[in-house]
Amino acid sequence: MRPILLGVCSALFFAVTFVLNRRMELAGGSWAWSASLRYFFTLPFLLALVAGRGRLRPLLAAMRERPGAWLLWGTVGFGLFYAPICFAAAYAPGWLTAGTWQITIISGSLLAPFFGQWVSGPSGSVYIRGKIPLRGLLLSLIILAGVALLQVEHARQLTPSQLLLGIIPVLIASFAYPLGNRKTMELCGDRLDVFQRILGMTLASLPFWLAVALYGLADAGQPSSSQAGQSVIVALSSGIVATVLFFRATDMVRGSMSGLAAVEATQSLEVLFALLGEMLILASPLPSLLSWTGIAVIIAGMALHSLFSRHPGEAASGTEKRRGGAEVPAAGGKIT
User: Fold this and answer.
1) 74: alpha, beta or left? (left if phi > 0; alpha if psi -120 to 50)
2) Ranges assigned E (strand) in 63-114
């Protein structure tokens, strides 16, 4: 239950991103600065946290071992996640972006077959590929049905270009974030903690963010003081608090694909939090009865996910007995 609660809290802080990105966009700020400034402002906080705990050197040593892999998955997990999110804010309201982002609930589950583990057994080493948690996938569809109900009437007010440019980038981000998250878990194994892993991904994605910032400078000039200030809030709320909570929750259930699916499903609450944030900050209208029905469906789907997030017989370590008694990863396996 604790990973689910951490996931819900991370959804609350992540929702700040959708609301403030939309607010900055409406004020004329460049999406490129909104994206890159978050990571520029996040970096010193993470450096202070990791260095203050005496864990910077092990991280740098781990990154030197496989610099190309860190560069790739840091850019995928952070760069191809957040830049499309900010780009979409230029064409669609925050609630639509947050709602579309919920496809990550399914994206994370569909990525399971791309991960696995070599396990020694009586007949030699066997590669156990992850399996898609079908039960979790079905429960995720309930949540997505609620998200659809929440947004159906609002979507009618948008033009086709707004829908495409506000949805397709978020679909890309929905696959990039869980992929980068899980691949860096694979890189780290048990050697690095959550703070080290987030700092490593931030450092690895810096070349990407420098390129995005240069584009923002050429396209819109320097960011305003208001955009910079709001980017600091996003950096602290989403870049530090929400990311640490979410990565900690996924680390706690890393041996179970069904558990990972349940934690990733908590991010559906971002829609509710973003909707409330836009009502309070951007004076958005109250939801209709249909939207409240969608909210109820989302909450019901979340409750079912938390109740059935583990398969019967799945061990606490995320392993199960198979192939003559050898321990192998359950429901997709621990990535090490």
Assistant:
1) alpha
2) none
Angstrom distance (rounded) from CA 49 to CA 244 = 12
For the chain, how many helices (H) and strands (E)?
15, 4
Site of tokens 């239950």: 1
CB 83 within 8 A of CB 213: no
| 128: three-class secondary structure by DSSP | strand
**In the beta sheet, which residues pair with residue 321?**
327
Q: Is 299 exposed, middle or buried (0-12, 13-18, 19+ CB in 10 A)?
A: middle
* Coil vs helix vs strand at 190: coil
- Total Cβ atoms within 10 A of residue 327: 17
pLDDT (average), residues 314-322: 36
Buried b (16+ CB within 10 A) or exposed e, 92-117: bbbbbbbbbbbbbbbbbbebbeebbb
3-state SS class at 275: helix
Q: Side chain identity at 172, as an amino acid letter?
A: I
Residue 157, classed as helix, strand or coil, is coil
Structure tokens at 152: 């159906």
Mode of pairing for the β-strands spanning 319-322 and 326-329: antiparallel
pLDDT tens-place string over residues 255-302: 776 777 778 778 778 888 988 898 889 887 777 788 788 888 887 887
Cα 50 from chain centre: 21
The model's pTM is 0.78
Handedness of CA 205, 202, 182, 116 (dihedral sign): positive
Q: What is the Cα–Cα distance from 320 to 275, expressed in whole angstroms?
A: 41
pLDDT tens-place string over residues 111-156: 877 776 656 666 666 666 667 777 778 878 888 888 788 777 667 7
Q: What is the mean pLDDT of residues 198-206?
A: 96
DSSP symbol at 114: G
Q: Give the per-residue pLDDT at 278.
A: 87
E strand or H helix at 12: helix 2-26
The structure tokens listed for 86 are 């900010």
